[in-house]
Amino acid sequence: MLKRSITVLGLAFLMTACGFHLRGTGSTQMALTELNFAARDALSPLSKDVKQSLINNKVAISSSAPFTLYLGLEEDSRRTASFTAGTRSAEYTLTTALNYELRSGNLPALIQDSVAVQRSYAYNQNNVTGSGQEEALLRQEMRRELVMQLMMRLQAITPTQLDSLKSQAERKERAAAEAREAEIRAQQFEEPQQSPILIP
Asked: Where are stretches of biased composition, namely Basic and acidic residues (predicted)?
């Protein structure tokens, strides 16, 4: 009994030392400490999960933050992966994807990217209810993994990187505005001037 306890404790210390943690329980150290948060569907479960995950990772959500994390719609799809002998669907592959952007004010998106998760499950024709429940549970698990992937992507982004991207975007905007003004001036200059009508 004592040997078993010592073995279990030894394994626990070993796993802790190598950085092991249960899936979904680890925290992500964010370089970004403040963000504004916006979403195409702010009331969706995914948007709520992302916002809560940011808060859990000590990211302050503030409308006055210099950068905004914007989430597009969660896109779910399902395709047949294999068939039974009677050409009935036997296995489905589920995909959940999310487009996201990091913005600053009215500038074009500084970063545009997406995350996606895939899972497969066997569809039982004799237990449609059970298969539907399995799909719903898989979707929930996929949503959690999607949030984790997004947090890992955000972890790699620093305020310095975003400041640099913001400066580039501002320079492009200024150059585009100057080009538009120059084009307008050129058109005005090229328009023929009408000579005044002389009345005898």
From this structure: 168-184
**Number of domains within the chain:** 1
What percentage of the chain's residues is helix, strand, coil (to nearest 5)? 45, 25, 30
CA distance 99 to 143: 13
Residue whose token pair is 């948060």: 37
pTM of the complete model beyond 0.85: no
- Looking up residue 55, the CATH number of its domain turns out to be 3.30.160.150
- Angle at the Cα of 122 (from 120 to 128), degrees rounded to 5? 125
Give the pLDDT confidence of 23-75 residue by residue, as tens digits: 443 455 788 999 999 999 999 999 999 999 999 999 999 999 999 999 999 99
